[in-house]
Amino acid sequence: MKNTNAFKATDYALVDLHLHLDGSLTPDDIVHMAAMEGVEVPQNPDELRQNLTCPDHCESLNSYLKCFRLAGSTMQSHETIAYAMESLVKRIDSQGIIYAEIRYAPQKHLRKGLTQDEVVRASLQGLEKGMANSRNGIKANIILSCMRGETNDALNTETVRLAKKYLGQGVCGTDLAGAEALYPTSKYRELFAIARDLGLPFTIHAGEADGVKSMQLAIEYGARRIGHGIRAYNDPTTKELLKQRDICLECCPTSNMQTKALEEVTTLSQYPLQQFLNDGVAICINTDNMTVSDTTVANELQKLHEAGILTATQAETMVLNAINHAFITDAEKAELKNLSK
Fold it and tell me: Is residue 99 within a helix (H) or strand (E), and if so which, with residue range?
């Protein structure tokens, strides 16, 4: 891993542990899949991009999530799901990503009669093909996300059991995503008790649209990582819990700025990266949604450095944090560390 005075994020072998499939498809992907699905999408490139990308006036996470609707409508068959996964894997390979954990919710792709199991198998086919056809030999796994909601408990339980069924076969864990403030983490205690009993690694979106209590529950449930977790920056109790249990925060700076995760942070230079690093909390930098947030991992690191809140040494540390907290074996971690030198 290069470490020069002139910081250049593309010099680093990069890792993305928090990458949503449906929020990271390009407009060209959407047009191609829409034709396969027989659904209509805007033909004007500017209009299409506006539908897929977070607007400047985004007010909250709930507003941000609206950008996923169009992508979801074009991923309802085996062919389009496999295509989407393959396309994303090949694209991030070209960006210098050496390892990624790509997440999506199988229950969101059942509109045309697929079962969750069939959805997962389609995504695994795309994953395998994407890695096989990558130029730089990227490694990637899939995280199957459960969704916060009112009437989908049975679907979430099925997702967890499918993650266990395909664990080690391209699936590496499970997650909980969605409208955190509307459906609090406390509602999912039993779900993650099942995941824990199955020995299934999991991360939980928490501390993004809700407070540190959401994070503390995620820690209590047994989460190995926390998606975002940004609201703990000024909470010593939660940070101490994270340190004691070696739980890594999957930070997504551009996304956090767009969703107004911290009302008091209005510029990237105020993003509380240093508060976590100085207090010894393991964090890593991720995209969240490459298309919705119009970013890449390299772009995130570069912007943080230019904002004066990230050094080259810290960037290297966070890449290693990501590798150390990935849902993979120690042997696989050692291989990635050799690639990152």
Answer: strand 97-104
